[in-house]
Structures are given as structure tokens and as C-alpha cells.
Amino acid sequence: MWSKGLAALGVSALATSALAEVRFVPVDVAPHVYDGGWEHYVGGGVAVFDCDGDGLSDLVAAGGENPAVLMRNRSDADGDIRFETATPDDLALTGVAGVYALDIDGDGWRDLVILRVGENKLLQGGPECSFRPMEIDGFDGGDGWTTAFSATWEAGNALPTLAFGNYVDRTNPDGPFEACDANVLFRPDGDGYAKTLLEPGFCPLSMLFSDWGRQGHVDLRISNDRHYYVKGGAEQMWAMEATPRLYDEGDGWATHMLWGMGIASRDVDFDGLSEVFLSSMGDQRLMRLSGGEGPTFEDVPYEMGTSAHRPYQGGDGRPSTGWHIAFGDVTNNGRDDVFIAKGNVEQMPDAAMEDPNNLLIQMPDGSFEEQGGVAGIGTMARSRGAALADLNNNGLLDLVVVNRRAPMEVYQNVTEDAGHWVAVTLLGDGGNGDAVGAFIEVQAGARTYVREVVVGGGHAGGVAVPEHFGLGDVAAVKVRVIWPGGIVSDWVDLETGAVWMLWADGDGLAVAEY
Length: 514
What we know:
Layout: H1 2-9, E1 24-27, E2 46-49, E3 58-61, E4 69-73, E5 83-85, E6 96-102, E7 111-116, E8 121-126, E9 130-133, E10 146-152, E11 161-166, E12 183-189, E13 192-198, E14 204-210, E15 219-224, H2 226-229, E16 236-239, E17 245-246, E18 260-266, E19 275-280, E20 285-289, E21 297-299, E22 322-328, E23 337-342, E24 358-362, E25 368-370, H3 372-375, E26 382-389, E27 398-404, E28 409-413, E29 420-427, E30 439-444, E31 447-452, E32 455-456, E33 463-464, E34 467-472, E35 476-482, E36 492-495, E37 499-505, E38 508-513
Parallel strand pairs: 2-33, 29-37
Antiparallel strand pairs: 1-28, 2-3, 3-4, 4-5, 6-7, 7-8, 8-9, 10-11, 10-32, 11-12, 12-13, 14-15, 15-16, 16-17, 18-19, 19-20, 20-21, 22-23, 23-24, 24-25, 26-27, 27-28, 29-34, 30-31, 30-35, 35-36, 37-38
């Protein structure tokens, strides 16, 4: 059964370094707790990005009824991870469910999109991790219960397109069940924004703009929580046409109904197209394009070991509840692994209460095996948002986890005998400084890794950090960029074991160590 399922996915076992035993150790950080009543059962995201230009990734974590916090990274390069809490007054907001970082105004400093129970906020970033309110004509933060976000740059625009996913309509007297709110799209209109409602809404907990089929433009995938839409709803994909429309069966879009929590995308089978991993209450769904016309996705075989549907330790046999989901090669062996934050919503009797976070390690044959317990990250807190990111610039992906009614956790990756690695960050133009929508291709031996630069997905937070590639035994790579708009750069050689900044230089790439 293994060979049949893996052959269908197109995975082949290529020579890489021997399997390293993945290990994480906890890092002492100032206590921070995501807390609150039923409006904060969901949310609890964290944004990871460099807010002061020192090359180290800082953290902004949602607090729910507690204020959001900024933790500035004071780690020694290739040494111990350390953070210092230094939250500006304009960021110390309550009611925060999620946070995403991106450079909205193109000034070179990443700004923040703050998702709240109440009015959403845009905060303009500046030197020394300073933040202040940002006002843009046509944008309003509403007064809903926002639980999902994604952004992209559509062709010809200096401003990003912003999508906000709203959960239950708190003003509906017939709610909360079957009372999902409308979602909101802000598209650039001159120097400001024009607002469009995306209806129907089915209580989203994650959304992601992605060029899912490499067709040259993005569409908007939305993962929805069946707990509140109950019936008549489903997962959604909006075609980002002049007037957005929902894909349907005539386009190849199949109906999927689940307790959707998070979205992650990554090309795990080296065919140049991203698989999609959806977390949910009950099981997790790794899906691939089926090869037909349009956005036709199908579940990978169960035997691949990606469903993570019950706790692997703790003795609670009830179904698991997945939240944030993230890809990353935690041993640098050249194969992406998966972290899934787990935890009961609150007191859901049919779901596991003892529900440890997952770390699914990809094996040479393309299957996945659970190693969260042996890796040291299988805690029993109610986890929500999370991030995989290299926090001390030593080439190993570390872990941040935000917990509901329990302290936030930071883990340092101390895996020994890890493989080679390289990391790449892009410098775009035309207002899109991070080149969101670009595709990075890294040629490493017989493999070509493909990575799309996106903003969104996860659960209520994400990373805006250099794209990290584990390489196994490969010690030299070539890289090229397919820029937003379709211009393809020449290939350039890169040394491994470093972070590189790339930008367009005619048809070529200019390169500098970051």
C-alpha cells in the first residue's frame, strides 16, 4: 500500500544525509498568555519578522483579553535564543486574535495587520520596532470578529490586496450557529482602497492567496469551520477576477466540508506545484492537484501518515483538534516536515483534552512519521498559533507556540548532524518590497525546490522571514526567481550555510549576503 500511495504522489527517494534525530529544547521567555472568553476560543496567532533590521526575527503575539506583546530578538548569532519584551503603546492592544507582518506602504519597514474582536488595525512599522496607526483612504477595520487574513499584490498596484475573514456575526440574534459573517476584500483603488464583501461567508479560520496552478495570477482559498456553518457551507476558492466569483464544480472545484482551522502550502513532491495541508478537528488533510483541469484537489493516501487524527501520547484516544499548520525542514535533510499545533477548543467532550502538538517528519520514501514526543515539543497545553523560523541564524528552524490559557512556548532546535541549508529573501519593486507572489526555484543536485512567497495561511499568524531550504548532502546550489508578473531571472550560484538577499538586475539576479 505504501508504494502505490507514494507513487501516486510522485515521490522518489533521493540520496540525502542520514536521518538526524530531531531535538528541541525549551527557551525561557517572559510569560505571555492568550486568554479570554468564547470569542477567543479561536485565534491566538503570532507574527515572526525582523522589525528593526538587525537580521534577527522578532515576535508579535496576540493576547486575546491580554495585551498583544512584541518580543525583540536579542539572540547571539549561532548561539542561545533570547528575547526582550518591548511592546510599543500602539501595539499593546486587547481583543487581538491574530497578527500578520508585511510592508504595506513600500517604505522598507514591515507593517502589521492586527486581527481583532472589534476593529481591525493597520500599524505602520518604523525604525527600532516602532509602530503607529496607519490610515489609508477607503480602509476601515469594521467591528466584526476577524479570524483569518491573507494579502497579495495584484498586477499594477502599489498597494496590496487585503482579505479579512470574519467568523460568527456577534450581532445576529439567531446565532451563533448558522450565523457566519461576510468576509471583506480591500482592493487598491488609486491611492486608497475599494471594499467588497465576499458572500456567503462560512466562518473562516484561515485564508491564503496563492497561484495554486502556476497560471500567472492568484486566487483566494478559504478554510471554514463547520462547527458554526453546520450545513450548507463548505471550503471555498474565490477566482480573483475583476468581480470575484466562487469556483464551483464546473471549474473542477470539489465540495469539501470540514472543521477547517489552518492552511499551509508547499511543493513536497518536487513537481513544481504546491500541495495544500489543511488542519481541522478530527483529521488533517494533505491534498494535491489531481492533474485535471482547474483547481481539482484530492486527499493523498491515508498511508502517507499525514492525518494525525488522534493523540500519539497522553492516553486520550478521542479525535485531535488541529490549529496552526506549518511546513519546514527541521533537520535540513532535504525533505519538508510538518508542525501542527493541537488543543481542545475549550471543553469539547468529543475531542481529546490531552492533545499534544505534532511534528511529522518526512521519511526518505515520502511518508511521514510522528516524532513530536521524542523531539521534545509534545506538550499538552491548548495550542493555537505557531511558527517555524530560524531565530538565531544558525540554519536550524526553531519553534514558537502560542497557547490558550497557558504561557507561550519557544523552542530552540538543537538537532545534531543536520544537513546543509540555504535561505533566500527577495527584494522586490513597485511597492511589493517582499516580492509576494514570486516563485523561488533552488536547484540542488537532482532536485529542484519551488517556493511561492505568500502572506497568509496558518492560523491567525505567519512568518515573514527568509525562505529556508534544507539540502541534505548537497553543498552547492543554483537559484532563480520567477518574479510577480512572470519575468524569469537567470540562474545564479549560491554558497550554502548562509542567508542571501536577491533582487532583479536586468534579466539576472544581484546577490548579497543578508
